[in-house]
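In response to reviewer comment 3 from the previous cycle, which asked for concrete evidence that the modeling workflow produces usable outputs, we include below a single protein chain processed end to end. The sequence was submitted unchanged, and the resulting structure tokens are shown without manual editing.
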Amino acid sequence: IAGVVDFRTNSNITPKLLQGMGDEIIHRGPDAGSTWMSENRRCGFSHRRLSIIDLSDAGIQPMSTSDGRYTIVFNGEIYNFQEIKDELESKGMRFVSGSDTEVLIEGYKYYGKEIIDKLVGMWAFAIWDSEENELFACRDRIGVKPFYYYHKDGLFIFASEIKAILTHPEVSRELNYKELPNYLTYAMSSKKESLFAGIKKLESGSFITLNKGGMHWK
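The workflow returned the following structure tokens.
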């Protein structure tokens, strides 16, 4: 997964940029690739697909709810999605695919952020709310699935791998020198930082909410 949110006066999100970000991580999802951009150009997503659960086109991402309000890019697998699906169907919700992605996005539409308390599995996902102009992003409790991000002056960029973020022309490749001791000692960076200045990790078991007022995490 990869994406950009730009709250600045002149958003520079383009289909070409999103396609380029997806191309950088094509090895993570060789089966298909798609992009999406909100009507107001504040948010754009890119997704590379590795088909596992629903192999049909109905499982293609980015995926939106039936009313078009919420759009998701999701990397991972929800082990108990059928249980959640049954619960939502009992409340009158109808599904058009057999994918866990649809269960996740429709579950978010119904339960809001509380959907994450119901999830069993591994995941990294981002959901754009086109009505509130707000991004919600979450990473699984163990941190199996990666989520890197860059945030500065109203520009937020995220991806499953750092090199997808580096395709953005406003992100430098400057070394994060304060992380060198960690890397040389443990062969890895710390839980919040990366080896690139300005590029951070969303911690395992946490989520962030991003809107024009700033970024908040828990």
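The chain has a mean pLDDT of 93. We consider this sufficient to address the reviewer's concern, and the full set will be provided in the supplementary archive.
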